[in-house]
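Lab meeting notes turned into a lecture example. A postdoc, R.K., suggested we walk through two folding results consecutively so the class can see how the record format repeats. The first protein's sequence and C-alpha cells come next.
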Amino acid sequence: MMGKVEAAIEFGTSKIMCVVGRPKSIGRFEVLSSGAARYEGIKGGRWLNPENVEDALAKALYIAEKKTRKHIREACVGVPGTFCKVVCEDGYCDVRGGVVTKEDIDRFVGETQYAYDDTAYSLVSSVPVYFQLDDENRYIDIIGTHAASIRGKVSFILVKKRYIEDMTELLRRSGVRPKAFIPEILAESLFLVPVEERDAGAVLLNIGYYDTNVTVVYGDAVVYNKTIHAGGMHIANDLSLIMNIDVDMSEQLKKQFSFGLENSGSKIYDYVKPRGGRMERFSHALISDIIEARVEHLCQLITEAFAQSPIPVARRTRVFLSGGGIAMMKGAKETLERYLKRQVRLTRIEAPQLSTPNFYTALALLDYVFESEYFGEPEKEPLLKRFSDKMFDAPQDIKGG
C-alpha cells in the first residue's frame, strides 16, 4: 500500500523548487511531480529581490500542482545553510540499569546543555555525534551495551528565527502551511553520503550559484558547516568582466567548458552566440585561465574551512559533491580532487528528469520527510554498533523514483 503524499520546498540561491512524492514499497520514495522557478535568489544570507520571491514560489507550486492535479496545502521547508548555525557540545549522563537503552540516549541528548546566547536563532535539530563509554573508545551507537555512564558530543543545528517567520508568512499567503523546517545541510548529508562513509567522517560540498556550503558529517550528525559566499555565479561574473561580455554569454561559455582541455592543445577557440547576434569566438586558453583561477581560489577557501572543523578532515576523508554551480561542468570532479587533494565523489541518483546535482537538495528534503524519525515513521534499521572501519567502499546508488 502506498504511503502518504508529501511535499517539500527548497529555496535555493537561484531557484525555488517544489517536489511532491510518496514512499515506495521497494526503494526509498518516488517523485510524483516537481516545479521549479528561477528568481534573483539568496546571496550572502539576503534576498536579492524580496518582492520576486512570492511570485517564484507561486510559479513553482503551480507547476507541481498541475502535474498532480492536487493543491498543496502543507509542505516541509528547507533551510539553506546560510541561515543555519551548527554547535557541538560535550554531554554526560548516568546509565540507569547498567545497559544502555534508547531512553538513556534520549536523556543524554536532553541533558546536554547548550547556552542559547543568541536569541535570533531557534533550535531545530539535536543529534548525538558519538558516544564514549568506560573504555574511552568512540562509538556511533551503543544501545544494548553494558556501561555505567555515557559521555560524548551532541550536534545542535539552529535556524535564524527571521527566516522561519518570513517563510511562514510567505507560505501562508500562498495557502500553504509549513509542516516543518529542515536544515538542508542535514538532509542532504544523510541522503547523499553512504552510511559507512558518514561513520568514518565525510564532507558534503554543495557548490551553488552564489554560495558554497562545506558540511562535515560524522555518523548521523552534522558537526560543522561553513557557508562561503562564492559559487558558480562568480565564474560567470569573472568571464563577463575580464572578457567584456554580457552574463548570458559568459554563462554559455561556462556551461560548455571542459576542464583539462587546456593541457591537450586540442581546442583553440570557444564559440557562443549572443541573443539576436552572430556567433562569436573566444580564446579557449583565456577562458581556461579565468575559470581555473576562480576554482583554485574557491578550493583554497574550502581547504581553510576544513581546518576549522572540530573533527579533522584528513586526506583520506571523502568529499561528496552537490549543487549546480560547478558539479555539472565536465571534468569538475577531477579538478576539485586536484586542488583539494582528496577523493571527490558524485553520488548517482535515480530520479527521472531530476538526476543532476542541481536537484539533489530538493530530493534530499523529500527523502528526509520519509526517512526521519522526527516525523514518527515506524521502525528503521538501527545504527547498532557501527564502527568507522569501511573507509574506501564505493558509494551506493540511491533510488529516488
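The second example is placed directly after the first for contrast:
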Amino acid sequence: MLEWMQKHKKYLVITVWISAFALVFASLVEWGGGGFTAGSNEHIAKVGNQYISRQEYDRLYNILYNQLFQNQEIFSNENERIPQIEQQVYMWLVQTKMSESLADDIGVSVTPNELAHRIITNPNFFDSQNQFNKDIYDRFIVSTGRTTESFEEQFSKNILEEKIQNFPIFQLSTLEIDSLLSANKIRDNLLIRVINKDTLLKNKTIELQENEIKSFWEKNKEKYYKPANYKIAYIALNTDDIEVDDNSLQKYYNENIQHYSENALQTERDLILEDYKKSYTKITSSYMRNMSKFLNSKDKYFGDVIVTLDRDSLMKIKDVLETDKEMPSDFITINYMNLSDDDLMLYPNLLAQIEQEDKSFSPVFEEKSKTWIIPYVLDRSPRSRLSYEDAKPQARDAVWKQKEYEEFRKIAQSSFVNANINSFQDIGFISIADMNMQSFQNESYSILKNLGLEDFEIRSLFSQIISNNQVSGVAFLDSKAVFYSIKNQELPTYGELLNISNGEDDQIAEAKIRDMRNALFEYTTNKYKIIDYRRQN
C-alpha cells in the first residue's frame, strides 16, 4: 500500500487523520528543554508570542473529562489526570492560539456586530417563541461559572477560528477523485500476532538507581507540586430540594413581571421556576455576607465534600423571601470545607471563582450536581513545588513506567526478528477505508475483536501499518505488541473506481478539506514557535 502511495505521491495527498495530527505535532513542537521561563506556573505553553494559561488548560480538560464520563463511574483515581485527555486539550489550545496568531497577522477579526449577531441567533438562547431571551443567555453564562466578558471573549475567539478554518474549498478534480479512491480501495492481506506486555516482561526485573530518579525529578520539577488549598465557609442548596407551590410561583411572577413576556407563566413556566429557585441565593448570599465577620470566632469542622441545606433551612429561606422578614443570626447552617485544585473534577466552577480574590459571597452554580454554592474564603495557600523527598514516590513510579515501556519495546522488537510467521493469524484484507469503523464490521473485524483488541486499538494498529513503509514490523498498542506482515496486496478493479457512491464522494471531499487544513496547520506550525512548558525531558 505504502509503495503504491509513494510511487504516485506527486498526484496523491491523503491524510490518515486518526493519528497524523498527533505524529506531525509531536515532531514539530519544541519541548521545554532544561528549565522553565518566568511565569510558567501560570502558563503551560507558548505559541508564537501568545501564552496558554494553566486556567484555560484546566477548564477545557475538565469540560472534556465531564463530557466523556458524565454518566459513568470514574474508573481511576479522580486526582490522577488522564494523559490522553490532557494531550488532546493541549493540541486544541495550541491550534486555537495558532489560528489567533494567523488571524492577527493577516488582519482577520471579529467585529462587535458579528459577535452580537451570532449570540442573538443562537438557538440555545431562544425562548418558547423562538426569540432571543437575555435572561436565558445570562443564566447560561452563570451556569458556566464565567463572567459575561470572559464568555463573550471566548465566543469571539471561536468565531475567529471558524473564519480561519472555513477558507475557500475548490471543487474536486477527476485526478484527485481517481487518486484518492484508488488509494482508499487498495487492500492488504494482513497476518498478525498479538502479544501482551506482561507476557513479554514476565521474566524481566526493572531496576532503578537513586540518581536516575533524582535526575528525572530535576528535569520534571514542575510536574510535581502541592496544589493550591483553600479553607472556605459556604452555604449550598440543591435546586431539586426546593419545594415550589403554585401560589409562591404566581407571587414571584407578579413581582417580576417586567422581566417576562405576556402569559409567560403559561408559556415559560420552567424559566420562571428556575429564576424563582435562583432567588434563594440572594437571601443566602446576603446572609453569608452579614455573618462573615463572626466566622473566625466560631468553632469549625472542615469537611471534604459540599453539604447542602436541609428542608427546614430551605423553608426558612422561603419564609424570608416571601415575607421580607429579618434574618436572625444562625437561622441557617454555614458549613466549612477544605478545597484544593485536586477537586477540579467535582467543583470546577467553584474553584474558578474562588481563585479570584474579590469573588466571595457571589453565588456559583455547579451544573453536574445542580447545586448553588455561596462561598467565603477564610484562608488560601498558593500552589507550590514539592521537594525531591516529597515528590520521590511519584517520580520513581514515572521512571519505572518509562523504563518498563522501553524494555517492552526492546524485547518486542527482538522477539519479532526471531518470530515464526507461521504463528501469525491471517485476518483477511484491510484497507484505508476500514479505518472508518462504522463500515468495518466484516470477518477481519470479528477476528481482531476475538484477539482482544478494542476499536481504538484497531484504529491505531491500522494507522501504524499504513504509516509505515515496511511490509512487516511491530505496532505498539500501549499494553500490547502486534507483530504483522503483509502477505499480498489487491488493487481496486476498474469497475470499483467507476462506481463511486455518494458516501465515497463525500469522504474524498472531506479528505481534501482535511488536507487543506493540515497545510494551514503546517504553515502556522512552521511560522509560530511552540514551547511546551509541561515537558522537561
